[in-house]
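Bench notes, afternoon.
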Amino acid sequence: MSVTARDVMETRFRTLSPQTPITEAVKILEEASEERGQRVFGITVTDEKGLLVGMLSMYDILLLMRPKHIHIWGEMKDIDVDGFIDEACIRAQPILVGDIMTTDVITIAPDTHLMFILDLMIKKHIRRIPVLDTGKLVGIVYISTVFQHLMRRMNR
């Protein structure tokens, strides 16, 4: 039996606009986690036509919070970091999703075989892959869903 993205993809998912403030995006990630019943650490970004333009992940947000030029100052242990978190949170408020999202997004088609998806996720260290059908975003495959599917097959 051939298993494809179509068989394991989530078809109900949230999207963000590039104009969404990061503070709102964080709330939407929390809501998406509640809806799915498990943590969601990344969300697709679409333009006004609904076309995929990027992905916002937990990693993108953490990069925003980390001092950009830490490598010039030394290591984090060399710096007085008291107040950094509060300051970073204040500075993040006017930032928009489009300012920090990843734009080079790997995508797959609905008929992509599960083993190709697994290989891609491992090689590229990605946890979610948007599924496009003739350019339209139709689903997302999460690494947790791939893992759960494989574990169910193992335990037959």
